[in-house]
Specification:
The complex is a heterodimer. By secondary structure, chain A is an alpha/beta fold. Chain A is built from twelve helices and seven strands. A five-stranded parallel sheet of chain A has the order 1-2-3-7-6, with helices on both faces. In chain B, strand 11, helix 11 and strand 12 form a beta-alpha-beta unit. The chains are: A alpha/beta, B alpha/beta.
Chain lengths: 433, 356
Amino acid sequence: MADRPDGAPQQGSNKPALSLHVPEPKYRPGDAVDFSHIDVPPAGEQPRPDENCDTHDMHDLAYGLVRVLGEDDKAHGPWDPKLDPETLRTMLGHMAMTRAFDERMFRGQRQGKTSFYMKCTGEEATSIASSMALAADDMVFPSYRQQGILIARGYPMIEMINQIYSNKGDKLKGRQLPIMYSSREHSFFTISGNLATQTPQAVGWAMASAIKGDSRIAATWVGEGSTAEGDFHAACTFATVYNAPVILNVVNNQWAISSFSGFAGAERTTFAARALGYGLAGLRVDGNDALACYAAQLWAANRARSNGGPTLIEYFTYRAEGHSTSDDPSGYRSAQERTEWPLGDPVMRLKNHLIALGEWDEDRQEKMDLEAAEHVRKVTKEAEQNGILGHGLHHPFQTMFEDVFEELPWHLKEQSEQAIREREIKFPGGLKL
Amino acid sequence: MSADVTEAPQNKDAGETGSERRLNMIDAINDALDVAMTRDPDVIVMGEDVGYFGGVFRCTAGLQDKHGKNRVFDTPISECGIIGAAVGMGAYGLRPVPEIQFADYIYPGLDQLISEAARLRYRSAGEFISPLTIRSPFGGGIFGGQTHSQSPEAIFTHVSGIKTVIPATPYDAKGLLLSCIEDNDPVIFFEPKRIYNGPFTGFYDKPVEPWKKHADSVVPEGHYTIPLGKARQVREGEELTVLAYGTMVHVAEAVCAAKGVDADILDLRSLVPLDIEAIEVSVKKTGRCLIVHEATRTSGFGAELSALVTERCFYHLEAPVERVTGFDTPYPHSLEWAYFPGPVRIGEALDKILSE
């Protein structure tokens, strides 16, 4: 124990000893779950301010919850984006496809076809519905759980699987951990494994777009856990200082691997309320309500595009599965959380809304799910022709040394020759495939 | 000088004509930034105090007036934010030249630099690049204490995907900086602040000579570049090879002159990429090698140089490779000149190498 300065009398001896608060989630494995403490306001209750309003006039929205889809499966209130049924069916289709993709890829990892996978089950709306509110050439700086954006933007699924398998068809040459996609063509920034680094980058991209008098905006996604990183706060500061045309999406799925949102400060306030201290527009949104996700993103996009400045959106949602293939959530949280989650499932809610509109039915849903699963199965087989991880069908050895720099310097040339020599020693006469 | 010279013009004899434009290193850097911004509308300058005020060392003075607030602006005090935003700007297609006010301040931005800027090209297989040039004054000798004196170059040479460049003269500062800005890879451009105003010789108790008396203060107008990865032969000699960069080039040169040592002195100019060919040619000729840097000794870039020389020139060596460096302590304030690898430490090493 650190000594007090010599001779200093002990202060405050009539007060209780100081105590440290280490956050603890309400429920651990085996616990009965009761989420009645979560305030779920009725759909349609939140006001929708003008997109260019002063941030001071919308403080309450950082503490409320923007909801459109009600218990009656109908759309309510001023945030209803009034999308036509065809768009809603497209949205539902992307969500179903993403879920089918996740199921298959997770299984592929368990079958040893790759090293790693991450599902976004339960959070599909936060990437798919929100990105559908952006223009196709608005630049997105995602975190690792926004595969839905690529599916919504029509990125070829085979490219995703080639990347996950790190095979010879992988555009990224097998260099990146599975799911760390990149597609400049789809305005989808290369994903980093280091958390929240994409947030100041998105702001910088948006600043560049403003410097050039462009019309494109940037949007970034970050988990609630990694809002604790300094990068996120640098992003908020730069965004507000330069009034950058950027949207900071915080996906609050309650869990960062095994650490609940309390370790990012959720016991004290909302994540949307982070916006207030920076003078950013802040919205807190039901992340399992696809229409609310779309509406909030569109509001922020319109604001950014008209030089109204940045918005921080918190999507309140739930990570229904583990963090990745590398953890077992039954070891740190109650299995009942998923079933008791008060905001339901985003796919079911959108499906039920379409049915309530008379624009959909269970048979069509079943058919769509089957078709999605079949499509993923077919593309997976096709991708497997390019190889699976660890089975030799990777990019040539020398590609390991390419793209470190634009040109190969002498020391990398020497090391490349070493790698090729080692390969010849290990596999005389070439590798048998 | 013509307004748009693409080859590096010869200027070695210019000092004798007296008719050329002479600049100190600050003005040469300012000139390089101005030339780059004039030629390429995608070049932008940002950093703490670089805008209206023109930088704490004045390297960006006048640029905001000339090129506008959209292209030269102050930033929040957040090195993570500065470098992170610059990475995003680079991905957009700009060519950002952020200034980190002191090299000692760069650490909050290291993740953005090491994990992001340096890796963007590799991890995206060339879809996204980081054509950043991060300028930062480094090194001691100005009574800056431990947080305004460090030489952290070895942290960056250890990272794959980033180039590290250090000029030692005004002429080189301009030509190298223009090369860095035009380079499509991220570059750390460390400016030896002790020699911003004159070529410090290490004899700190003697008056400082201004740059205008030095041949390499002749800085042509307009555009010229000096290729990265090419060392500068400061002096030809036979007795031993001296490898140095930044301030220590001048200190080593002065000490060799004072001791009458016929040294072959190489100013490395860039550490990555490194001019290994020039090093090998010189060491094989002289058979002796002294490495001088101001940074701390353990795992300093001198260790890499020493290993390379030993691996490649071992059978030509007539004495062990020697390193003269700063001590493995923080840079002290009052004992600055006891810390600095000055004439005594270099002289002792020269005696040792030459006595073998």
